[in-house]
TrEMBL record:
Pfam families: SBP_bac_3 (PF00497). The keyword Kinase does not apply. InterPro entries: Solute-binding_3/MltF_N (IPR001638). Residues 1-21 form the signal peptide. It comes from Agarivorans albus MKT 106. PANTHER family: PERIPLASMIC SUBSTRATE BINDING PROTEIN FAMILY 3, SOLUTE-BINDING PROTEIN FAMILY 3_N-TERMINAL DOMAIN-CONTAINING PROTEIN. Residues 32-236 form the Solute-binding protein family 3/N-terminal domain. This is Solute-binding protein family 3/N-terminal domain-containing protein. Keywords: Signal. The lineage of its organism: Bacteria, Pseudomonadati, Pseudomonadota, Gammaproteobacteria, Alteromonadales.
Length: 246
């Protein structure tokens, strides 16, 4: 598994490749197993994709670990900054220049094993108080449907709120939920109500260097075509025993 050294949450983590005149900053956030921090190292799906992109594009790209909300604001306000990576949605579309797609995320609603409400349609979600996390596109989507959403700091914190009965359900992408089930015993359903899919993409400030972003998009396209990104994602799905049938 690829790893990166992390000096602290706000530290910039750069690999030593030739500078290209423009430095892009990928502002990322803890989101296991997409971004995992183990002591002073970063690992996960997105870190492996980052390393592929940096090597293939030969661009000067650093990565900085921040809370999601701050990472989002940095990309929104600062040229040559991107948030790596978030759900691409209609509400966010006009705010960024998108390098896309990285992969598709599928989302499900999970409830306690011993107490759950049968769900057969998205309309049924309005019966529940559902946990998500700050900056999550799925939280925004649920709120747009009129669902009561409780936002935690992280996806794991949201799952723990369900365990403590502070919410009635937990909305998570299926790979993240598989990671939580693999590492924690929270008494949550392993299989959920699959209700939503979205693209995960790199969202960059609209005033970023156009040439660098075009080169980044070209590299992403070629890596997708080669199957290397799909191979990374599949390895994590296998490791955490993702049930794609739900």
């Amino acid at each position: 598994m690829a790893t990166l050294k992390a000096s602290c949450l706000s530290a910039s983590l750069a690999l030593s490749l030739p500078a290209q005149g423009v430095e892009l900053v990928f502002n990322t956030y803890l989101d296991p197993p997409y971004v995992i921090q183990d002591q002073r190292e970063l690992a996960g799906v997105n870190i492996e994709v980052y390393e592929l992109l940096k090597k293939h594009s030969n661009l000067d790209i650093s990565i900085r670990l921040l809370p999601l909300k701050r990472a989002y604001l940095m990309a929104l306000e600062s040229p040559n900054n991107c948030v790596f990576a978030i759900e691409r949605s209609q509400a966010r579309e006009s705010s960024f220049t998108w390098i896309s797609p990285m992969y598709i995320s599928r989302y499900a609603i999970y409830q306690p094993q011993q107490s759950f409400t049968p769900l057969s349609s998205v309309a049924d979600l309005q019966q529940l108080k559902i946990g998500s996390y700050l900056g999550s596109g799925i939280g925004e989507y649920l709120e747009s449907l009129g669902v009561e959403v409780d936002l935690a700091k992280t996806n794991l914190n949201s799952a723990k709120k369900l365990q403590r009965q502070r919410t009635q359900a937990w909305a998570s992408d299926i790979l993240s939920s598989a990671y939580v089930h693999y590492h924690y015993s929270l008494g949550i359903q392993k299989q959920g109500f699959d209700f939503y899919s979205s693209l995960r993409a790199i969202a960059c400030n609209k005033d970023s260097d156009a040439g660098a972003l075009q080169k980044l998009q070209t590299s992403l396209n070629q890596l997708q075509k080669s199957g290397k990104i799909s191979k990374i994602l599949a390895s994590y799905e296998q490791q955490y025993q993702v049930d794609l049938g739900l």
